[in-house]
Amino acid sequence: MTNADVNQQPHAWLARQSRWSPLEIAFWLATLLPFYFFPTYLTLASQIAITALFAISVDLILGYAGIVTLGHAMFFGLGAYAAGLLSVYGWGEPISGLLFAAAIAGFAGWLASFVVVRVQHLALIMITLGLGFLTYELANAMTWLTGGTDGLRGIRTWPIFNYFRFDLWGYTAYSYSLAALFLGFLLSRRIVNSSFGLALRGVRENVRRMPAIGSDYRRHLQKIYVISAAIAGTAGGLLAQTTNVVALDALSFQRSADVVVMLILGGTGRLYGAIVGAVIFLVARDQLAGINPQYWYFWIGLLLMFVVLVMPKGILGGLASLAARRRGRG
């Protein structure tokens, strides 16, 4: 589908994009396989689901709206601390805790959006990076609240619906995280396959033309930034509830940088690219760290260079281009 097709038949294009393909259904059914074939890796699988949800939140603003960020871990960490502190102070119900985490992160995203939408390019990167550093150091200084470098302890997550307890093997954690990932994906899919999603693509492609067609692009960017922050906060809340601890690294620059690497690997502007990138990155990290705990990033760097040189649009983008060429030959 070309840009001309989208411009000429936007409603028909959106309708086609909204349909579920057999490959998508097969993909989500495959997420159930760890329960039966890899039960010893369910803890890792839950971390992948949480990170994939975080990657989707970044893809909404980076891949669809063109907002380049290196500080989105701020919202992930705020969500984690919000859910964790709610539990520490006596309320460990997980679903309301996730909603609280999303609300806190979304509010922070709304405050930050007034600054973020007014800058572009290098200034935008520096603003998001600076906000991330400020939040990290603030959490580090407020040891009475966050635990500082020792982390937030004393989190006790209640059973889901007072029935499903979080077990040591990760069955409940993975089920819970996978359900949250799927719901977050459904929301994000609905957004990007709507007229609002098309407006975001327009902002990404040419922000100067949007006012000429009567589009309030800053309001669009503010909306998606708040939604993205809320989803990132939900992912952070999931981390706090499934691990019962929140460390400072939830707010770290490393977490923000890692999720950008995942998007580059999987492909930006493709929601499944965020999930695929998270799976590849975390599985590679788990396996490579087992082989060489000190230098595993060297191999991640090689993988990243290979993908960028061979498939500049990411793995899913490269596969899509290959499929298009084969259809053209046919």
Automatic annotation (TrEMBL):
Pfam families: BPD_transp_2 (PF02653). InterPro entries: ABC_transp_permease, LivM-like. The chain crosses the membrane at residues 25-42, 49-67, 98-117, 123-147, 168-187, 224-247, 259-284, 296-324. It is a multi-pass membrane protein. Keywords: Cell membrane, Membrane, Transmembrane, Transmembrane helix. It is found in: Cell membrane. It comes from the Bacteria. This is Branched-chain amino acid ABC transporter permease. It comes from Neoaquamicrobium sediminum. The lineage of its organism: Bacteria, Pseudomonadati, Pseudomonadota, Alphaproteobacteria, Hyphomicrobiales.
